[in-house]
Each structure stands twice: as structure tokens, then as C-alpha cells.
TrEMBL record:
Pathway: Cofactor biosynthesis; molybdopterin biosynthesis. This is Molybdopterin synthase catalytic subunit 1. Heterotetramer of 2 MoaD subunits and 2 MoaE subunits. Also stable as homodimer. The enzyme changes between these two forms during catalysis. Belongs to the MoaE family. InterPro entries: MoaE_sf, Mopterin_biosynth_MoaE.
């Protein structure tokens, strides 16, 4: 990791450069435009944007809706995950937002975006960001199936 500093800071970057541009766990609808704008960086040659949506099935069973809830520490854990991704990859800009509350089929549940100098780095950092968010940030998914059955899925098991 020659030339790297904590949180992905590269030699030549200003000491004030914070690649973490937007982090949120919120009930309001998520905006692709907001997230994309947050990771804009003139030095980035690659930007990835992952959008997780509510699908109409899980485990072969039809889903009617989902409800996400978050532990009060979710925002803090999301920041910890983002900082680790920035420390492990040469991130120019990073954003991650996750929705809570009731979501219908097709609604956007999560968006992550990463900008790096090169596309390979952006893809790898983005993959780590979404995987670690899903496994480490305490956000739980309550699935409601069309047959009336319900299931809870939590951080570390989704």
C-alpha cells in the first residue's frame, strides 16, 4: 500500500479530502441522482453504482412487501464499514444509503456508489461496501409473503 494513507487518501490529495461523501439510514425514498452527484470526482476514471431493489420473491416464495428496521447504531456501523473500505481501496469518493420502513415490490432499498481512479478498483470497493453493509450494519428485513407468512432476516444473515 505504498502511497496510501488512512481512508484511501493518496499521496497528492489534500489533507482535507474526505472520500466519504454521503452516508444515511433513512425512511425517505432514496435518490439515484443524489448518490451519483455525491461521488462525482474529476480525478475518478471509474464510478460504480449499485442499486438494491425489493424483488417479488425470496426462497421460491412470492413476497408482498418488506419492512426494514435499523438499530440506533446503524449509522455509526455504516460509517465504520465505509472507513474500512476507504482504507483498503484507493477511493476518491464513496456514498451509501439504506432505506428503512415499509417498501413495496420494485422500491429502492439500498444504493452504494464508489469512485476511484480506475474501474477495477471501483468495482472491487463497491462490492466490498455492499457486502459489508449487508453483513455488518444492524439493519433487519421483515419479509411479508403473499400467503401471509412472515420472516425476519438480520445483519449477518442476508
Amino acid at each position: 500500500m505504498v502511497g496510501r494513507r488512512a481512508c484511501g487518501m493518496m499521496v497528492g490529495m489534500s489533507e482535507n479530502h474526505d472520500p466519504i461523501r454521503l452516508l444515511a439510514v433513512r425512511e425517505t425514498p432514496l435518490s439515484l441522482d443524489e448518490v451519483h452527484a455525491a461521488v462525482g470526482d474529476d480525478a475518478a476514471g471509474g464510478t460504480t453504482l449499485f442499486v438494491g431493489t425489493v424483488r417479488d420473491h425470496d426462497g421460491g416464495k412470492p413476497v408482498a412487501a418488506l419492512e426494514y428496521s435499523a438499530h440506533p447504531t446503524a449509522a455509526r456501523e455504516l460509517r465504520r464499514v465505509a472507513e474500512q473500505v476507504c482504507a483498503d481501496f484507493p477511493v476518491r469518493a464513496l456514498a451509501a444509503v439504506h432505506r428503512t420502513g415499509r417498501l413495496e415490490i420494485g422500491d429502492v432499498a439500498v444504493i452504494v456508489a464508489v469512485s476511484c481512479a480506475h474501474r477495477g478498483e471501483a468495482f472491487a470497493a463497491s462490492r466490498r461496501l455492499i457486502d459489508d453493509l449487508k453483513h455488518q450494519v444492524p439493519i433487519w428485513k421483515h419479509q411479508v409473503f403473499t400467503d401471509g407468512e412472515e420472516e425476519w432476516v438480520g445483519a449477518g444473515s442476508c
